[in-house]
Amino acid sequence: MNGITFDAGGLIALDRNDRRVIALLARANELGQRITIPATALAQGLRQPARQARLSRLIRQPGTDLMPLDARDATAVGLLLARTGTSDIADAHVVICARRAGQPIVTSDPGDLRQLAPDLSLVAL
Length: 125
Description:
Layout: E1 3-6, H1 8-15, H2 19-30, E2 34-38, H3 39-45, H4 53-60, E3 64-67, H5 71-84, H6 89-101, E4 105-107, H7 110-116, E5 122-124
Parallel strand pairs: 1-2, 1-4, 2-3, 4-5
Helix pairs in contact: 1-3, 3-6, 5-6
């Protein structure tokens, strides 16, 4: 494992001080691993930045990669949604980013992600 990718549920769990997420982040930090946050997942999880200190800190850390939904990823997301017959843009973007980074996804909703990518490794909360 070279890091972890977060979906919105994982980010919300961090914001709620979920000890499993805190432990995952501490371990990733110890090992010098990257944290990937797709911008679409951040948009779903970030509601009150002034009150979401843990999440705000995470996105500012040097070991965190905030991945935009650019033209390349938008195309890949659309193709994945068409192939799987699903419609959640944020989940598909998380899958695209995790695949590219070679990372498991930290999620509170493994069912939706398995529908998009049954082969990906998930850390279910």
